[in-house]
Amino acid sequence: MSIHDEMTALADRAVKASRELAKLTSRKKNTILESMADELDARRADIKAANQKDMEAGKAAGLTQAMLDRLLLNDARIDAMIKGIRDVVVLKDPVGERISLWTRPNGLEIEKIHVPIGVIAIIFESRPNVTVDAAVLCFKTSNAVILRGGKEAMHSNAILADILQEGGAKKGLPDDAIQLVRTTDREAVRELVQMVGKIDLAIPRGGESLINAVTEQARIPVIKHYKGVCHVFVDKDANQDMAVDIVINAKCQRPGVCNAMETLLVHKAIAAEFLPRMAAALQERRVELRGDDASRKLVPAMTPATEADWYAEYLDLILAVRVVKDIDEAIAHIDTYGSHHSDAIVTENESAQKQFTQQVDSAAVYVNASTRFTDGGEFGMGAEIGISTDKLHARGPMGLDELTTYKYIVHGSGQVR
User: Fold this and answer.
1) What percent of the chain has pLDDT over 90?
2) Which of 57, 167, 346, 383 could form a disulfide with 238 if both were Cys (CB 3.0 to 4.6 A apart)?
3) At what angle do helices 154-169 and 129-140 cross, to 10 degrees?
4) pLDDT for residue 69
5) Distance from C-alpha of 5 to C-alpha of 339, rounded to nearest angstrom
6) Are the beta carbons of 104 and 110 closer than 8 angstroms?
């Protein structure tokens, strides 16, 4: 069977499953989710054995220690996956929920409600736990899901997908509601994202090269998570103790994630006082600083920043630093170099707070808080499918609501136009 025929058959089965999923009640879905969690718990040995094959292959292929860490499934991570499923169980099911209701002068009653998107393809790299997160969130919202993970996690992804489908089937999960692409051929991704009329949405999760490849090939809608070039602007009216804590957290707490700060902007009115103190605290934590001329005059140990540094998503203990003359210049910098992910201002000035939140066009804009909070769990959404830097149809952390669309139900009593 050709890749085209294989992916078409996969998509056809998913379409059929999506119609069955739409019939399930919230209570039934939660019972199925609990069965999935129980099955994961019961089959830990199978999961770890499959994961060991991927780990051994990864070591042989020369994967970095960071990549191997992302790949590893141990008891703690299996526990986290099980907990993630049970957390989703207690979340409110948005499917069928009323968004709004109104009555027209002619008596027509118009109701707008959440409904499933249909069939969603999730294309991801490295972390096998995404198999569980994506499948569970899509299922809770009555979407059929087609999962395509990276070749480095093929055995782990396969056992997890099988366990979810088999565990769910014990309590009535429709066949083919959760499917995994079993081939490592990259042509499979091209086929999936061009399947107009069968697959409703693609969500790539991974590096910028993966997202670019999916976007360039796609003929169906794609929700993208581009890089996170996140900024913290320390205004002249900032509480400087607070600013130090926020900057350290945003840069150092977990530097290799998309919501970590990559550029620090400091108002020139406080730079001479604040920057040396801030630089010392960051250098204690082994952060490499790359500054503009004004920053380097105050902290000569900084490396000169290049134009490329302002665009960089380091995902490492490296920070670009710039002194700006005022809030307008800070906002202009973010507008020019940012990725519309997460940006913060530290200030006690309410006028500055309002200007920043109104004019910075990012998915999450913070006042006196770290950018590290841009996360579905931290926002109270439970697990997340990703963080969208698009504006349509979802933006920022994507939880259950963002995995639905809507339709109108119109009740009449014989009205004609």
Assistant:
1) 91
2) 346
3) 30
4) 87
5) 38
6) yes
Q: Measured in Å, how far apart are the chain's first and last C-alpha atoms?
A: 52
Give Cβ neighbours of residue 378 (< 8 Å, ≥ 6 apart): 372
Q: For residues 159 and 54, what is the distance between their CA atoms, to the nearest angstrom?
A: 12
CA distances from 2 to 158, 185, 249, 262 (A): 21, 11, 50, 44
Counting beta carbons within 10 angstroms of the beta carbon of residue 6, is it exposed (0 to 12), middle (13 to 18) or buried (19 or more)? middle
Instruction: Using the Cα atoms of residue 242, residue 245, residue 247 and residue 249 in order, give the sign of their dihedral.
Output: negative
d(CA 257, CA 372): 9
Which of 309, 303, 326 lies closest to 233 in space, CA to CA? 326
User: How many residues does this entry show for the chain?
Assistant: 417
CA–CA distance, 292 with 264 (Å, rounded to integer) = 11
**201: its two tokens:** 């949405």
Alpha-carbon gap, residue 214 to 78, rounded angstroms: 29
Distance of CA 116 to the CA centre of its chain: 19
Token pair in block for residue 40:
């994961």
> pTM of the prediction?
0.90
Instruction: Give the DSSP letter of residue 348.
Output: S
Strand partners, 409: 111
